[in-house]
Amino acid sequence: MAGDKLQVTFEADGSLSAPLTLFYPYNRTLGTTVARFLSSLADKRIEGTKAQDGRVFVPPAEFDPSTGTPLTEWVQVGDEGTVVQWSWQPAPFEDNTLDQPFAWALILLDGADVPMLHAVQAKAAATMSIGMRVKAVWAEDRTPEISAIRCFEPVGG
Amino acid sequence: MGANRCAVVGVGQTNHTSVRADVSIAGLVREAVDRALEAAGMTLADIDAIVIGKAPDMLEGVMMPELWLTDALAASGKPVFRVHTAGSVGGSTAIVAAQHVMSGVHKRVLTVAFEKQSDGNAMWALSVPTPFGVPVHAGAGGYFSPIIRSYMRRSGAPAHIGAMVAVKDRTNACKNPYAHLHEPDWTLEKALETPMLWDPVRFIETCPSSDGAAALVMVSEDVADTMNVPKAWVHSTAMRSEPTMFAGRNQVSPRAGELCAEDLYRKAGITNPLEEIDVCEVYVPFSWFEPMWLENLGFAPRDHGWRFVEDGVTEMTGKLPFNPSGGVLSTNPIGASGMIRFGEAAMQVMGLAGEHQIDGARKAMGHAYGGGSQFFAMWIVGADKN
Q1: Domains of chain B as residue ranges with CATH
Q2: Contact status of B3 with chain A (Cβ, < 8 Å)
Q3: I need a surface site. Which of A72, B47, B288, B325 has the fewest CB within 10 A?
Q4: What is the ipTM of this complex?
Q5: Which B residues, 349 through 378, put their C-beta within 8 Å of a C-beta on chain A?
Q6: Domain presence at residue A117
């Protein structure tokens, strides 16, 4: 930014404005709970944590949402699940993982007790429905992040 | 005053260090919280309200972290209150928590403050060049060094005073297992050979960059009286503010700090702070702020703060120990630093400071400042109820 000419806007009432672009580099540290979940995805496994009341959270909760107790019991869940709610994306943005129209969906994975948000690659909005079965499609080049699951697709095509 | 009594019954802090890559922010916060609750013999379920503080969100780039920390603090269904007063926030957060109790609104309050400096870069996150002004690219050291130079000129302090404070604090820190820096071998000669960073501030005279959190459990008198744990009674609290810059501002001894200390002593019934206070945990991120705050807080006459340092008054064996924990100069998770001062003051009167305990400490001061020396937060805690 140093040396750039100031882009001043002169307002009718005598006030002045100029743009300020903020850019700043940060790090992110996940801790061991979320890190284990994402590392497992890179190995094509989906794992969640079991809360004190027995509910399985996927993605995992680091602390029990009711009591605050650290959750350390892990449960592997299925890579298939049921759509509990969805919304159609007719025109994907450039930074969406999928370049064809798709659905954002809350998916209750088999063995989990809370749904997880992910993308469902369906042929058309008309083929989407609450209660439909979907299956994870693994990315070929997997890093420990949520996009290790490329998307979900309807079971049986 | 009409306020109800409040006691600190649990102090907890993390083992502070440069990078805590093993924990999320939530995990870091919980480490301090669990230790404070354990000391109090309580659990999260016992807590009525939570007060959380940290320095500007820009430091880690996480907006409103208090919202996603709700799970980790078991705060669902309870009031959560976020405090923000720049670097003094750890102190002002503790004060707001105490006020939750002193007002009679809550009986058992948990307060926690943190900073995960390794997730960002505190020095430059707050020095973003903005339109219409000239970027100074100075950082905190560059901001405070001219003020320190001004103090040296005004008071006639010799150049080695800053290094003396630094050697004292780094040596004290070796007695504190939670301190970030454990460097036992400093001498004044070696300290004076460290590189000059921002004239007159040398490398040893500046604080480290730390990841850490601190937490306190505070309860009302009726609850405290049923608890068989060491207690620190809150005798008084005070906060004051002033603008960063205005013509004629005394940056060496800000009026807000002087007024804050006066109010604090008056409310605690203290007429001679040097005689009546046994130990101080004072926010000294650059070593020269020790002699400056000695004067600002009314312990030393004007221009005599540096003489107290030279005479060893603030050593652990001196008349008024400053920062037996090693202070901010040895540990600086910014948002937590003020709460560490408040908690360490409490630990002294609770008799829980271990190797850095000042024998017989009955009355202690916790102090924090922030921004451009413009926010002040202080408390006096005692072993006795009054």
Answers
A1: 6-122+208-382 (3.40.47.10)
A2: no
A3: A72
A4: 0.84
A5: none
A6: yes
